[in-house]
Amino acid sequence: MPSYAVTGSSRGLGLGFVQALAADPSNTVFALVRSISSAPKLQEFVAGHAHKNVHILQADNVDVASIKTAAKEVGRITGGTLDVLIANGALMHHERNKLMLDEFPDESVLDDDMLTFYKTNVLGTIHMINAFIPLLRAGSTKKCIIIGSAIGSHKLARRTEFTDNPGYAMSKAALNIAAVRYASKYRSEGVIFLTITPGFVRTLQGTPEEVEKFFSEAEAKIREKFPSYEGSITVEQSVRDQLALISSVTIDRSGDFVNRDGKNVEG
User: Which of 4, 130, 157, 222 has the highest CB neighbour number within 10 Å of its CB?
Assistant: First the structure.
């Protein structure tokens, strides 16, 4: 009975992973959310799902105690193991996303914003991995998947010349290094660490008009540098491709930074 823990499961990609994994009654799925009361879509899905194989647990990236409690509960249910951890939870959208590093109103605001991204996306993910690594080491599949972003690629940043979203981009770049460190330490035990870029997924909340405007403008901007760019994709497309990759990845790829098709992202 394979077991999966998915962070950031209240909506978007996280919820998509939970729904896809729960479709197989042999899977045990742990949906980790920052706040259970703030996850109505997830609760609705779990309540109406026929297989009853999803457990909702609270685990906030900035609350280490909640992370440890969730890991303990997972271990209690599975008997001390976990096959796959999908570290998806992250802070992405922010009111000052469009500002470059030298455009913030003052130094304190810059400090606060950058530290918030680092604490949530980098340290939060590290704390999550640290809490669940004993269960992964005891599991049969031993896979830790970090949902990354092409925006964290140094080479792609130079090619696109984009200057917005600095906090998010730098936090994702830092996670790439963290994944390699873990991969190096646990390779001999067969634990696989893989960072996957999910694609430009249509998870933005808002009116249909607002969502369409955002993605059409963003796609046009990207195609100025990459004319053959595939464009935005649905949650279902992204999850399908990522799960196929997760199921097939082997230890020789541990520490890699890849697209959802398995090809290495330019670092």
Answer: 4
Half-sphere exposure of 214 (CA within 13 A, CB side): 15
Q: How many helices (H) and strands (E) does the chain have?
A: 9, 7
Which of 168, 221, 225, 263 is an active site residue?
168
Q: Can you state the angle between helices 235-248 and 12-22, rounded to 10 degrees?
A: 60
What's residue 267's pLDDT?
62
**Residue scoring higher pLDDT (226 or 52):** 52
* Pair of tokens at residue 60: 């906030």
In a domain, 240, yes or no: yes
In-domain check, residue 222: no
> Residue 243 is which amino acid?
L
Non-local CB neighbours of 29 within 8 Å, separated by 6+ positions: 3, 4, 5, 6, 18, 21, 22, 53, 54, 55
Among candidate residues 4, 142, 143, 172, the one labeled active-site is 172
In a domain, 162, yes or no: yes
Strand order in the sheet with 28-33: 54-58, 28-33, 3-6, 84-87, 143-147, 192-197, 257-259
Q: Which of 10-19, 28-37, 174-183, 211-220 has the lowest mean pLDDT?
A: 211-220
Catalytic site includes residue 229: no
To the query of whether residue 52 is one of the catalytic residues in this protein, the response is: no
pLDDT bin (cut points 50, 70, 90) of residue 188 is very high
For residue 108, the domain's CATH number is 3.40.50.720
